[in-house]
Amino acid sequence: MSKLAHVGTSIFTVMSQLANEYGAINLSQGFPNFTVDERLTEILSKQAKENVHQYAPMAGFSPLLEKIAILTRQSYNRIVDPKAEVLVTAGATEGIFAAVQALVAAGKEVVILDPSYDCYETPILLCNAKPVHVSLHDDFTPNWEAINAAVNHNTRMLIINNPHNPTGKTWTAADFDRLEALAEANPHLIILSDEVYEYITFEKAHLSIHQRPKFWERSISVSSFGKSFHITGWKIGYVIAPEPLMREIKKVHQFLVFSVNSVAQATLSEYLDVVDLSALGKFYQQKRDFFRALMKNCPLELLPCEGTYFQVASYAGISEESDLDFSKRLLIDYGVATIPISAFYPDGKDLKLIRFCFAKDDSTLIEATKRLEKLR
């Protein structure tokens, strides 16, 4: 008997497979198609010749843990203990899975804000806990009335995602004020903050859970080197949590992957000495603006994009099709693969929206938008 009978092939895999089958330009799955920083590959080449090919320590390569602590202080003015409060993970997904498995007991509830990434619900179900889905407003701002109503004495965790995938929405200071009030009223509540796109924001600076000291003893943050450095295939990220919570997370991590790729950790430790993460937002803002300018002759309506490398568009003005049917027609008839936003809602809520990934080289974006201009 399947423990995850309802889980099938993800929409990301489905659309990428269809893109390959029909020779479509793949703006669906969230990965860059341009080359990574030459400094990174040079460091990788050098490290491959060093004695870094055996197991790294379970929690992470010590120099990398130190660099993460320095990065957190520089970015958010938060001091963390690299030995007790930082964990290198096999991607952000493993960090989320380990945190939920470690901290959520059977019968407890976890609040998820929809539309939401599909990796949140599975570890909750595997804990025999209950996912409680709360929809954001249709402009993708938090619905605090609904969130407050969903949290009760049995709620163990609230998962937040900022900047938000799939919509590119970012939280405001007022949102964090409301979150603090909610947490103060529910002292048993843990906040899991998915911040994998933290360095990819545009007009407004990223606001992090790290900047709120009231959360330091009851929150887990999840970050991604894969997203920040265009190396999604390396599957490497990190988690920061207070020592009592981290102690439990490490227990799961130890028996889930034990430790993360040693060469990748050694490479990133050195790379953090030379890379300027503050430039990442500017790089992707240029990508966003370039893509939006190219789309000016397309009949789709582009929604605001405040962060991430995703652009949401409405097709409500040109079709009554479901977003899945529209996405398939767009792929088959026009040769551009996207993701329907209904895939991020467990009930399939359909707002006539699709998501593009603009983390692509200029030639790919130019060709994709030429095809989209023909859309009718």
Brief characterization of the structure:
With 376 residues, the protein is α/β, with parallel strands linked by helices. It is built from 13 helices and 13 strands.
Q: How would you spell out the order of helices and strands? A: HEHHEHEHEHEHEEHEHHHEEHEEEH
Assembly state (oligomeric): single chain
Low-confidence stretches: none
Helix coverage percent: 25-40%
SSE-based structural type: alpha/beta
**What is the CATH fold-level name of the largest domain?**
Aspartate Aminotransferase, domain 2
Gross morphology: globular
Return Rg in Å: 20 Å
Mean pLDDT: 96
- Determine the strand fraction and express it as a percent band: 5-15%
Supply the number of helical segments: 13
* The CATH C-level class name of the largest domain: Alpha Beta
CATH architecture of the largest domain: 3-Layer(aba) Sandwich
CATH homologous group name of the largest domain: Type I PLP-dependent aspartate aminotransferase-like (Major domain)
Pfam family, one: Aminotran_1_2
InterPro entries: Aminotransferase_I/II_large, Kynurenine-oxoglutarate_AT, PyrdxlP-dep_Trfase, PyrdxlP-dep_Trfase_major, PyrdxlP-dep_Trfase_small
Keywords: Aminotransferase, Pyridoxal phosphate, Transferase
Cofactor: pyridoxal 5'-phosphate
Question: Mind sketching the topology for me?
Answer:
Elements: H1 11-22, E1 25-26, H2 38-47, H3 62-76, E2 86-89, H4 91-103, E3 109-114, H5 121-126, E4 130-135, H6 144-150, E5 155-161, H7 173-185, E6 190-194, E7 219-224, H8 225-228, E8 237-240, H9 243-256, H10 262-271, H11 280-294, E9 301-302, E10 310-314, H12 323-334, E11 336-337, E12 339-340, E13 353-357, H13 362-372
Parallel strand pairs: 1-11, 3-4, 3-5, 5-6, 6-7
Antiparallel strand pairs: 2-8, 7-8, 9-10, 10-13, 12-13
GO cellular component, one term: cytoplasm
Organism: Flavobacterium silvisoli
Domain Aminotransferase class I/classII large: 25-371
